[in-house]
């Protein structure tokens, strides 16, 4: 395989895994539910997205056939991540999970 | 024609997705995809959302690129906040008044906001006039509202043919 | 080069999975646990994509797609359950 493709795939893999790890670190160490929600919805989604691009590039480079179906996975993730985050946020608001005290603008009771 | 293909865009999308799923481009799969593309919208038409027509396709492409760029920027930003000091975070809830009335465009807006600038959409007021956002690190609420309105809402209103009220 | 990069990536993802599991055990509230479960499924998906690259096989794609779909449906079902105490509206 072309050395440049190898370097690009490696860089994307490392980047993707770092973002996935950062998402998990955010999930573990941030103080309350709503701040924790940010890590997985953004970092993990982008991390997996860049892993998928790396996979596409790898198979295009090693087998000389364009395989686009990984794109389907990326599109699916980018559509579903905000939906599940929104859903969980609504559930958490309804259940009145504990918030960090310094959270400003706490939502009114409906 | 209208009865057979209630949403031509959706049908096209289904065909493309079928071809991606089977990872092939031959006549058989194309026909099967076409069959699915016609059958699924017909079977689901009772509960499909009405998608407003795209008025400016070129603008849509540039908006998609902007969002993609913002996703990367937002991720670097969130990564720095996650790895930084915990007690320096300034989490907040912000309510953004929105002008978009169309359900589909509203869903697009809240998804984009969840993916981009350090915000997660957390709820919608019952009359669909205000969107509740949770911000990880808020500097100034008015700035954020202005940014949401000019950077994301205005282009969406311009792209999709739906009258702002 | 891949001989070094891929094990490193696997280790990073494994660490991510461990952190998710810790959050899953610790809670403290139900939404936290559901969120941890959702992240766990996305990380499992990343592991599978990586395994597909390592073993140079395209057949892992279907597995990854299935995990993505099941993870999403599970999260939505659990979220609905938390919201209404009922899964079907």
From TrEMBL, chain A:
Name of protein: Multisubunit potassium/proton antiporter, PhaG subunit
Transmembrane segments: 12-31, 43-60, 72-93
Coiled coil residues, start to end: none
Tagged with keyword NAD: no
Pfam family, one: PhaG_MnhG_YufB
Record flagged with keyword Transmembrane: yes
Keywords in alphabetical order: Membrane, Transmembrane, Transmembrane helix
Annotated GO MF terms: sodium:proton antiporter activity
Automatic annotation (TrEMBL), chain B:
Origin: domain of life: Bacteria
This protein's UniProt keywords: Cell membrane, Membrane, Transmembrane, Transmembrane helix
UniProt-listed Pfam families: MNHE
Main location as per UniProt: membrane
Protein family (similarity comment): Belongs to the CPA3 antiporters (TC 2.A.63) subunit E family.
NCBIfam families per record: PRK08965.1-2 (NF006518)
UniProt protein name: Multisubunit potassium/proton antiporter, PhaE subunit
Native organism: Pseudomonas kuykendallii
Automatic annotation (TrEMBL), chain C:
Keywords: Antiport, Cell membrane, Ion transport, Membrane, Transmembrane, Transmembrane helix, Transport
TM spans (from-to): 34-56, 63-83
Gene Ontology molecular function terms on file: sodium:proton antiporter activity
Membrane topology: Multi-pass membrane protein
Main location: membrane
Domain of life: Bacteria
Subcellular location field: Cell membrane
Matching InterPro entries: MrpF/PhaF-like
Record carries keyword Transport: yes
Any single Gene Ontology cellular-component annotation: plasma membrane
Pfam families with a match to the protein in the record: MrpF_PhaF
Protein name: K+/H+ antiporter subunit F
